[in-house]
Design brief:
157 residues
Length: 157
């Protein structure tokens, strides 16, 4: 049974499951940000635990395949070394899960912060969509909206 599960979750299959798995969470964030579904399943620790489990699974599979983890530190030596790391599918998948997790966490923070400031959820949906696609730019757009609503620039909140 465990062997069948292990053989089923290849890098390609895990890629599809991770991408399809976060779509409902983003749809809940965009269309139902005030719902209990959003509170308990999206802006809680639940999605991060699931994505972390996927990350650990890839690390485990990489370890069994004798992946050179020490070589990962070479990414700080230059852009060419970074592109060499992305030729490995396991490393690329670890990066992708990292990217999706950070964007989802940021989207959850945007929703919670906008609720605290009573920002219109339709207005917040625009930076949420942008955050889903290109995280930092969506966060920047939300920051601009937040400045308008709070009528102050706060760099540390």
């Amino acid at each position: 049974m465990i062997e069948e599960i292990y053989n089923y979750f290849t890098i390609e299959m895990l890629y599809y499951w991770v991408n399809l798995g976060v779509l409902p969470l983003w749809l809940i964030l965009i269309f139902f940000p005030n719902s209990n579904l959003s509170r308990y399943f999206v802006t809680s620790i639940f999605p991060i635990l699931i994505l972390s489990g996927s990350y650990v699974f890839i690390l485990y599979k990489s370890y069994l395949n004798s992946y050179d983890f020490v070589n990962n530190f070479s990414l700080y030596l230059g852009i060419d070394r970074l592109s060499d790391l992305f030729t490995d599918r396991s490393y690329l998948m670890m990066f992708w899960i990292h990217f999706i997790s950070i964007n989802l966490f940021t989207g959850g923070w945007i929703v919670r912060d906008s609720q605290k400031l009573s920002i219109n959820k339709i207005l917040v949906s625009i930076p949420l969509i942008i955050t889903y696609l290109i995280g930092p730019i969506g966060l920047f757009f939300y920051w601009l909206i937040r400045i308008f609503y709070t009528k102050s620039i706060n760099l540390y909140d």
